[in-house]
Design goal:
The complex is a heterotrimer.
Chain A lengths: L3 E2 L2 H24 L7 H28 L3 E11 L2 E9 L1 H24 L6 H20 L3 H19 L6 H32 L4 H14 L4 H18 L8 H4 L5 H10 L4 H8 L1 H5 L2 H22 L5 H21 L3 H28 L17 H15 L5 H15 L5 H26 L7 H6 L5 H16 L7 H6 L6 H6 L19 H22 L14 H8 L4 H48 L6 H22 L4
Parallel strand pairs in A: 1-2
Antiparallel strand pairs in A: 2-3
Chain B lengths: L4 H20 L3 H26 L3 H31 L13
Helix pairs in contact in B: 1-2, 2-3
Chain C lengths: L3 H21 L3 H21 L3 H25 L14 H22 L11 H6 L3 H11 L2 H22 L5
Helix pairs in contact in C: 1-2, 2-3
Classes of the chains: A mainly alpha, B mainly alpha, C mainly alpha.
């Protein structure tokens, strides 16, 4: 459909930026610094713009439902020879969905933060970073040119660093922020290499032109397969950095040092999904590189099971959720890897709902327990925090894949895609099933250790135990509704036909941008029938969840059951010693290289050269000083010698008189 | 050697000798004498060329040079007297305050 | 009449010898006397070439006034016969001598080249016809080079004042 020009994208983009300017510049200017800003003022200044952006997003959604994508090109950014980049924003079906998620979940998290951070100092700084993050993420998804996407990509990385290290006076938290940024940057090198190769091949950074070019390549086959594979691999490396896959996932668990709403927004719903969005946007390119897709699928699967296994042994509630996020992102990449881009976006959406819900719920629990995050010191909180418990239960059911909650639909579609689609692999399917089981177990464990069983918290915590204020409960309930019902946007055909011809709304809606992959129906001969997969995974999910809840009601770790697996438990608890391995294999040699550079290269070579020049000039001056002996006749002698030379010159050049 | 050349060569020789005196002699008065010799040699060259080429510009120039040489030697000797007063002798190696 | 070349050659030799005396003499007065001799020799050369006025001026001003001044200064400063000022083997002498020799040789080489120079109209006969060397010179001096003439007289006056000021005994 034809694109329509509209100002809505620009409004949606600039409103959070307005929030950033208000909280970051205007209010501190009036109040002479961040310390004197009232939390309520800062929160209002940040929440109103993003809520307005959400309203605009709804208008945009309605506009693109009936017409073509909304495009606006305010100005030409770069025009340097063959490089032409417009500052162009586009809301089409894919970015429109993500804009709704970002602004909607973003607004809810702003509201939650207003309550959660009400006792913190310098809240204005927090909200300004949050608004800046929303601006960057919106630029990332709405940008119609790859450099704009990268601008947003870097921006969200920056805001992630700023927000993780919000309490920067604690060195550990500041280091976590640094780690996140550096890991992102390592991935960004891959992204840039991929982007440059892409530009060389296509000649433009514009997504419309790129999509047309990809279609042309697919039709004619006139593309360099090796170059495409290399470019897509490089882009995927960038995605591993941003979306926390192996090997660059190490920053996500450490990122839990930041405030919990930050974890909910950035590390569950939005920033970490940027990699998935990028691949979905460039799906035409990735379709031309089947080897890369295989790599993506296997890396996603490996990450999923790796993180899932670590999640079972963690004691910190936020760490469990962090590894759960890494695992679910692995699922999304598994979907991309088998060619089911739509399914990946579907899971992105449902994951945004239930993971944000779980994180906010955990924030509510932590808030109630006066900052306690260790689950071994919780338990039996159900009767103290009824609302939090109810919403978290819904979130847990959703993530575990219990039928008819949102996670069931999306996760099931992923699992079925891995065997049904031509790009599928059965190994990936098996890993997916095992990880789904693990997910249910550790989520049930988390729920049980926190809310059920004996109360293990101290008397001090008990005295301050209180349910969260309404400002924090409202977002929880909204997200609970979405987590429960959101799945019905993507009902598979099999069920849809039974439940009164409910179409796969999301699939149809995304079709113009992200092509549908029709999962074969009953008539075609398949290794496993779709219904078998569906029923099987439901049963598995229910069983494992119940196991997790009952099993960990009063025990905290697997060793309580099987003392023999204590060594394995230790490895899992210490996250397979990945951080220690990186420190030894990468960081130590780098530190040694840096020390060598400082001692040898800097001190000897560079300082030596610079000081040497100075010393040399000094010595030369001292030698030349001897020429000035105060004797006039010496000076005259020099003149006479000059005269002799002049005469010789005259003789030699004499003929040219 | 033609008659035109002898005065020129003599002038060259006198000039070089004067230059050597300026460079090598330690007594300031003798140094000034060397300068006078150089000026004189230049005069000789000028006049000889004027004579050879049938012009009178050289002679006019010499007129002025002699005048200025007189003025210069007068002033130079006054400076020498001052030198003698300040440094105690008229040898050139006495005035070394600008050394280094 | 002896060929002018021989007379010039003789005068040149005498002057050259006197110059050597000047260079190597350890007595300042001897140097002054040698210079006097050279001045008289050059005046003779001027006279031989028909430039009577310049010869006269040379004798009167240079030999008469300037040399007197020098001799007075030598006597005033009581300069005795000193030691040798320089050694032939010293580096300074070698360098200076070398530059002088180079200068000489190069200069002679240039002189020997056949260079076409514009000849003027004032040969001997014309000058005599116009009333002699002095008249011609005076005419040129007071018409063409009048400004220079006045400037030089000004310079002379300045030099006079300067010399007196510099040599005055300061009254404290």
């Amino acid at each position: 459909m034809e694109a329509q020009t509209s100002n809505l994208p620009l409004w949606i983009l600039l409103l959070p930026l307005l929030g950033f300017v208000l909280n970051g510049v205007v209010i501190p200017l009036f109040k002479r610094g961040f310390a004197l800003t009232l939390p309520a003022e800062a929160a209002t200044a940040a929440t109103l713009p993003i809520a307005a952006a959400f309203v605009c997003a709804i208008f945009a959604f309605m506009a693109i439902s009936h017409g073509g994508p909304l495009v606006i090109t305010p100005y030409k950014w770069l025009a340097i020879g063959p490089l032409n980049v417009d500052f162009s924003l586009k809301i089409d079906r894919l970015s429109g969905l993500l804009v709704m998620i970002i602004t909607g979940v973003g607004t809810l998290i702003h509201i939650f933060s207003a309550g959660y951070m009400s006792h913190e100092p310098c809240v204005g700084r927090y909200f300004s970073y949050l608004s800046l993050f929303c601006f960057s993420m919106l630029l990332l998804v709405m940008g119609n040119e790859l450099p704009l996407l990268f601008f947003g990509w870097e921006g969200v990385g920056l805001c992630s660093y700023l927000l993780i290290g919000f309490w920067y006076t604690d060195t550990e938290k500041a280091n976590a922020g640094k780690k996140a940024f550096i890991a992102n940057r390592v991935g960004d090198l891959g992204f840039l290499i991929g982007a440059f190769i892409l530009f060389k091949m296509v000649g433009s950074f514009n997504f419309d032109m790129m999509t047309a070019k990809f279609a042309e390549w697919k039709a004619t086959g006139t593309y360099d397969a090796h170059l495409v594979m290399f470019a897509t691999l490089a882009l995927f490396v960038g995605a591993t950095g941003k979306s926390a896959q192996i090997p660059l996932f190490v920053w996500l668990p450490d990122a839990m040092s930041g405030p919990t709403p930050v974890s909910a927004l950035i590390h569950a719903a939005t920033m970490v999904t940027a990699g998935v969005y990028m691949i979905a946007r460039l799906n035409g390119l990735f379709d031309l590189a089947p080897d890369t897709l295989t790599v993506i699928a296997y890396v996603g699967a490996a990450t999923a099971i790796f993180a899932g296994s670590i999640g079972i042994a963690q004691k910190d509630i936020k760490k469990v959720l962090a590894y759960s996020t890494v695992s679910q992102l692995g699922f999304m990449f598994m979907a991309c890897g088998v060619g089911a881009y739509q399914t990946a976006v579907f899971h992105l959406m449902t994951h945004a709902f239930f993971k944000a819900l779980l994180f906010l719920g955990s924030g509510s629990v932590i808030h109630a327990c006066s900052g306690e995050q260790d689950m071994t010191k919780m338990g039996g909180l159900k009767k103290y925090l009824p609302h939090t418990h109810f919403t978290m239960l819904i979130g847990s059911l959703a993530i575990s894949g219990i039928p008819f909650f949102s996670g069931f639909f999306s996760k099931d579609e992923i699992l079925y895609s891995t065997i049904a689609l031509p790009g599928g692999h059965s190994a990936v399917f098996i890993v997916g099933v095992i990880t789904a089981a693990l997910t249910a177990v550790y989520t049930g464990r988390m729920l049980a250790m926190t809310f059920y069983g004996q109360e293990r918290f101290s008397a001090d915590v008990r005295s301050h135990l209180h349910e969260s204020p309404g400002l924090m409960l409202f977002p929880l309930y909204v997200l609970a509704i979405l987590a429960a019902a959101g799945g019905f946007l993507g009902v598979p055909h099999l069920l849809g036909d039974y439940l009164g011809h409910m179409p796969h709304h999301l699939g149809h809606w995304l079709a113009p941008v992200v092509p549908e992959r029709h999962l074969p129906l009953m008539a075609v001969k398949l290794p496993l029938h779709e219904a078998v997969v569906m029923i099987g995974s439901s049963v598995l999910a229910i069983v494992c969840f119940t196991l997790g809840v009952i099993g960990f009601r009063n025990k905290q770790s697997l060793t309580d059951y099987l003392s023999g697996i204590a060594p394995i438990q230790k490895i899992l608890e210490h996250k397979y010693y990945v951080d220690e391995f990186y420190a030894m294999a990468i960081l130590r040699p780098l530190a040694k290289l840096a020390a060598w550079c400082a001692d040898v290269m800097d001190k000897l070579a560079i300082d030596g050269a610079v000081n040497g020049v100075g010393n040399g000039a000094k010595r030369l001056g001292q030698r030349l000083r001897a020429l000035q002996d105060g004797d006039v006749q010496s000076y005259a002698l020099v003149m006479a010698i000059g005269l002799a030379f002049a005469m010789v010159g005259l003789v030699v050049l004499g003929k040219s008189f | 050697m033609s008659s035109a050349l002898i005065p020129q060569v003599l002038a060259l020789f006198l000039f070089s000798t004067g230059m050597l005196m300026v460079l090598l002699r330690r007594n300031s008065v003798v140094l000034l004498l060397g300068i006078e010799l150089m000026l004189n040699a230049a005069n000789l060259s000028l006049v000889s060329f004027a004579h050879d080429l049938g012009r009178i510009d050289g002679q006019i120039q010499v007129f002025f040079v002699i005048t200025i040489a007189a003025a210069e030697s007068a002033v130079g000797l006054s400076i020498l007297v001052n030198l003698y007063r300040n440094f105690g002798a008229v040898t050139t190696d006495r005035a070394r305050t600008m050394q280094g | 009449m002896v060929d002018i070349t021989y007379i010039l050659g003789a005068i040149a030799l005498v002057c050259a010898a006197l110059a050597m005396v000047m260079l190597f003499s350890k007595d300042a007065l001897t140097c002054a006397m040698a210079l006097l001799g050279i001045l008289i020799g050059t005046a003779a050369i001027y006279g031989l070439q028909g430039e009577h006025f310049v010869a006269t001026v040379q004798l009167v001003v240079y030999a008469g006034a300037i040399m007197v001044l020098f001799v007075f200064s030598i006597m005033l400063l009581n300069i005795k016969r000193g030691d040798a000022d320089f050694r032939i083997t010293s580096g300074r002498f070698v360098a200076a001598a070398l530059s002088a020799v180079v200068f000489l040789v190069a200069g002679t080489w240039v002189l020997v080249q056949k260079i076409d120079l514009e000849k003027g109209p004032w040969n001997h006969e014309t000058v005599i016809g116009l009333g002699g060397n002095t008249r011609v010179l005076a005419h040129s001096l007071f018409t063409e080079h009048f400004v220079a003439f006045e400037a030089v007289s000004l310079a002379l006056m300045v030099a006079l004042v300067g010399a007196v000021t510099l040599a005055k005994r300061k009254i404290d």
